[in-house]
Amino acid sequence: MKSFLVTLMFALFALNSGFALACASCGSGGDDPLNLFCYEQAKFYLGVTRNTFFKTIDPEGTVGKDGGPQFKDTVLFSMGERLTFDTFYTLGWSVIRNSVANRERSGLGDPSVTLRVAVIPQMADKPWVPQVSVVSAYKQSFARGVQESSDVSLLDVFGTGYSEFRLGLDLWFGMNEYKFGTAQVFTYSFANTFEDLTLKPGNALRSTFTFGRMLDDRSKIVVGVNRTGKAKLEQNSVLVDKSDSESWSQFLTADWGIDDLRTIRLSYSANSYFFTNKNASRSQSLTLAYLRAL
Amino acid sequence: MRLLTFFAPALLAISCGKIQVNPETSPPPAEGSPTPQGCRPEVVVASEEQTRTLTSDGFMGSASNRVFAALNLQNELIASAYVDFQLKIVGANKLPISNLRVVEFVPYMTIHGHGAPTKKLKITKISDSEFDVKNVFFTMSGPWDLKIVLSADCLEDEIVFPVTVK
Question: CB distance A240–B111 less than 8 Å?
């Protein structure tokens, strides 16, 4: 009953103040496309992403030739449900289409589940106290990774080839007109065996910094940067020299609230263009998404 | 009795497969070359250090350092295109190895932990020590390893040849 009243209070507040939209944490930028506002019980997300202009960057940071598909189009369906006032989970699965000039292949991506717990909730009367969430996620390796590809353009690659567990903190100052957030997420990849080789990607740390502004009661714009550093790959328990990686991405996301329940989102991301990038993939992506609270 | 003493080690060696039955057709090998026919092949597994021995004339040493290979590249290796080259494989004395065969040829991007499709790969032996390697495809640019598993009389060996793909 108490949580219902608190939820109702936030819902009423949200109807009257655009600043309450900040309740959904954006410190992690586009890593978790679906966040539930405090007053939302459930929500779904349908996003279409086109990823293109791929180039490979080697361990010395030299940008190479195009590799793999020309376009990677992803349709991501995600749904989230609130478990308690502080906690919600989301499920996500994608359909991916890889294409080059005259060929294309489609397949399912890797499914994932995410759990978010707000350990410090957003408080309207203390706008400079950030909302702090613990984020944990698991991604099951389902789709074919590059390790098992038999296509010269890697059109049959729809996943990473490894299951992953993520754990991190998301911090979001979202109660003011100008917003700021950061997220630090650690990723552990599980080993997988391909023929006679057991491979295990190194542990990774993804740091995200975001800055945003409300445009009106229902719309906001967020820009951000994230850095991913990954330790060396293990091959049959031996570390592979020069296999550690670093990549930086910059993103711009605009949310337009159609009404209190529906939102259109447009997001652009430039990957591995600026700062130090090594053992990375350069690309640009554009996402158009529809979010609907239930 | 003296005859038996003389022949016993020879018979024992023949039964163990250590020497050739007809010594006239198989002269003693030069030092560093694979041992002659009839012996049990020695399988050598490469270690990181062993597969990085590059001689001044561009030959890469095998896991056992008894076999050396060199790539004859017509053009630089480029990603997302089929490339051809010649492969020369010799013994430590730089002479051809008898009955040499390339058993396996694997382009492998070790730093990323993946290979490349080899469906169209074709290897043709053009002389005792040279092979035409056609339709090698590198799916992306960067450092790759060409893992070459070869066999000859009494030897199975492995050479890992690092190449840079543009």
Answer: yes
Percent of chain B with pLDDT over 70: 66
- Interface check A201 vs B, CB under 8 A: yes
Q: Where are the beta strands (DSSP E) in A140-261?
A: 164-173, 178-189, 192-194, 197-200, 204-214, 220-230, 234-235, 238-239, 245-257
Please give the span between the terminal C-alpha atoms of chain A, in angstroms, as a whole number.
20
What is the DSSP secondary-structure string of B69-133? EEEEESS---TTSEEEEEEEEEETTSS--TT-EEEEEEEEETTTTEE---TT-EEEE-SSSEEEE
Q: pTM to 2 decimals?
A: 0.80
> Residue B26: which pLDDT band, with cuts at 50, 70 and 90?
very low
Task: Give the nearest partner residue to A199 out of B113, B119, B139, using CB atoms.
Answer: B113
Instruction: Look at residue A212 and tell me whether its pLDDT is greater than 70.
Output: yes
* Residue of A56, A152, A279 lying closest to B137 (CB–CB): A152
Tokens encoding A242: 């020069």
List CB contacts of A34: < 8 A, sequence separation 6 or more.
Answer: A43, A44, A45, A78, A79, A80, A90, A92, A291
Cβ-in-10-Å burial (0-12, 13-18, 19+) of B45 comes to exposed
Q: Give me the interface pTM, i.e. the ipTM.
A: 0.79
| Cα separations in angstroms, B144 against A99, A280, B68 | 25, 15, 19
| DSSP code for A7 | H
Distance CA B73, CA A174 (A): 59
Query: Hey, is the C-beta of B80 within 8 angstroms of any chain A C-beta?
Result: yes
Query: How distant is the alpha carbon of residue A156 from its chain centre?
Result: 22
pLDDT of residue B6: 43
- Place A3 in a pLDDT band, splitting at 50, 70 and 90: very low
Residue A31 burial by Cβ neighbours in a 10 Å radius (0-12, 13-18, 19+): middle
C-alpha span between A98 and A153 (Å, rounded)? 9
Q: For position A25, what pLDDT does the model report?
A: 55
The answer to whether the CB of A25 falls within 8 A of the CB of A240 is: no
Helix (H) or strand (E) holding A52: strand A42-57
